[in-house]
Fold each of these.
Amino acid sequence: AQSVAQPEDQVNVAEGNPLTVKCTYSVSGNPYLFWYVQYPNRGLQFLLKYITGDNLVKGSYGFEAEFNKSQTSFHLKKPSALVSDSALYFCAVRDISPNQAGTALIFGKGTTLSVSS
Amino acid sequence: DSGVTQTPKHLITATGQRVTLRCSPRSGDLSVYWYQQSLDQGLQFLIQYYNGEERAKGNILERFSAQQFPDLHSELNLSSLELGDSALYFCASSHGTSGASSYEQYFGPGTRLTVT
């Protein structure tokens, strides 16, 4: 079965420092991977996706993610964190179960990113 | 603003009652997804509709049902409500159901359901 793991419930980083939010996945076949961000009392916002191609994917707000097939990881990164980046981050993989004809996403538990000034 | 709208924003109701949550997808999007977000279960896929037809089912209870209408808006019906149904219910939409246009889902602001 497909699954996504975000091993850290919370990541704390100082403003201006690089940040990494970790994600590992388990799928059969090629993964379609996504990162979403959720601000308080808001819906999820799409950040970036990996479907195929370059392992380094660039997304919104200066975020990027690196796809590593051998480590089955898709970590979210940003070179210099902002206080406004503080939010809940979700990694997701497209559900390609044999009984799923649709394009639903399987989400990780989420990681709270806290950026201090 | 994602372009996906959901009503109502908040809903408080009693156990045993029935409620309907409404979602309007982004203009041009044919797929609608419903997700439930709770503290203990996280974000879980419930059901997907594509152009009026059910496309995929996730962890949706039999007490819950959904439909997508000809104008593409969707409704999620929750009946015989229990305390454990209290959660944030999100609707998302995407353009298609295959190919690159299906991969990005755009989420509405959610409906917070509280069952007392």
Amino acid sequence: GAVVSQHPSWVICKSGTSVKIECRSLDFQATTMFWYRQFPKQSLMLMATSNEGSKATYEQGVEKDKFLINHASLTLSTLTVTSAHPEDSSFYICSARSDQETQYFGPGTRLLVL
Amino acid sequence: GESVGLHLPTLSVQEGDNSIINCAYSNSASDYFIWYKQESGKGPQFIIDIRSNMDKRQGQRVTVLLNKTVKHLSLQIAATQPGDSAVYFCAERFTGNQFYFGTGTSLTVIP
């Protein structure tokens, strides 16, 4: 299947700092990318959907000024958690979809805010 | 609708037995479904998909069954192995871009 990477895998940061997570589709062009967060023992929660070159569509309850998403190219989307606080600690997962239907997921980024 | 943060149901099976994982989806208009496997600390991994015009699809050791009448999806794993231990999610596509995920089921294979 298609390969999606995320960087970094782990982030530990102090409260108040901003953290950028990259999501790349390595062997296909992703017209749409999705960002999810996941708490331990829980399901994936969709945060936002982004299409290349346009603004992201955020799910209800997700602060767009808090979670900045940039889908700059067909192979790269970034999620920036601005002024991170301990409650933002979570597992952030991106997925990418080409013109085909299937979403392929990245390996996830674990964020720990102290 | 969209999955919320519910705690995962669990399923334990003996190695070599068949596993059946169930999923109830929410939208009768959903036209495409995917099963994902997620191992601890990793991102979800595609297992198998099925379109709404099908009732059954088979892969290697896995079979997905779709019952549109009751909006039910199941994943059958034959001869379950320890490496199958993971959380399994179903996902439904409601609109062109939107996928919604089930709560997931944690499968534990007992050697």
